[in-house]
Amino acid sequence: MNGKETVVRGIDLRVAFRTEDGRRVRAVDGVDLEVGRGEIHGLVGESGCGKTTLGRALLGLVPLTGGRVIVDGVDIGELRGRRLRRARARMQMIFQSPWGSLNPRMRVGTAIAEALRAHRRVSRAEVRPRVEALLAMVGLPAEAADRYPAAFSGGQRQRIAIARALAVEPRFIVADEAVASLDVSVGEQILELLVGLRDRLGLSYLFISHDLGVVERVADRVTVMYLGRVVERAAADELFRAPAHPYTVALLAAAPGRFPREVRRAFVLSGDPPSPVDPPSGCVFWPRCPVGPTVDPSRTICRTEVPPPTTVGDGHVVACHFPGEVRLPDPVLR
Length: 334
Fold this sequence. Notes:
- By secondary structure, this protein is of the alpha/beta class.
- The chain is about 30% helix and about 20% strand.
- The chain has a domain at about 5-80 and about 215-320: 3-Layer(aba) Sandwich (Rossmann fold).
- α3 (about 110-120) crosses α4, α3 runs parallel beside α5 (about 155-165) and α4 crosses α5.
- The two termini are about 30 Å apart.
């Protein structure tokens, strides 16, 4: 944590649910996570790895099967009534779709004011000035409050969604693929806005993304998930310089523009991720691992034992029985 105050901490978080045919899915399977004050903590992994479910679980939007969420040193699972509402107001979410996250029948000002009224942040006379101040904070004019979402572009709608999230003065925001549906140039502007707001307001983010290039530009630390579990965590510069888990190596190799085509092909993983309904025993990554028992049958430990977190550097933790065996070539293209 580099001495930073911890704003949100998840301890042994677990989220499971039943499919329509009654089978149990372990979407989040024993995850520990900390986000420090003023930190942008990147969370990456393939689609279906549990990133979004983890983010929602931290905010209480999906129920935990096990584990605890600590906010400002307080276990929110022990809070009730007004104290729980205050704790939840400190945590907000920015969703991927700027089209689906706003009510098309509600004027922008009303949508932002709804959060202010729900948490009784300002008096009735102060609502409009506060709405206009929030719009200005995200780079929109005051008159935007009187228009409907359909009048705005995707980037502008995402700015409105950010303003709404800021209305209750949160300390922690989960940004779930917040720029994934936007054009590259517009996405860059939203990234700059989020970083600027972090610096101005002292916000902390869990920044969920499948785009490693985006994560590399904004994140202070990065957590890599695979099939509901954390496989690696490190400071961003350390993880991108010296990834230790073969899954992280494969993700970096596949990122557009980092390596020549022949390098990307050499690190392509075989097969699809296993089903979370029936995950592999031992290390969940072993069926696709380029140095695991499918390649070296003597490494039966990968099939039978869950790899414990191993420290391989300052704050660099990897869950792998044979960390660092798969290495990317150098130099990296920029």
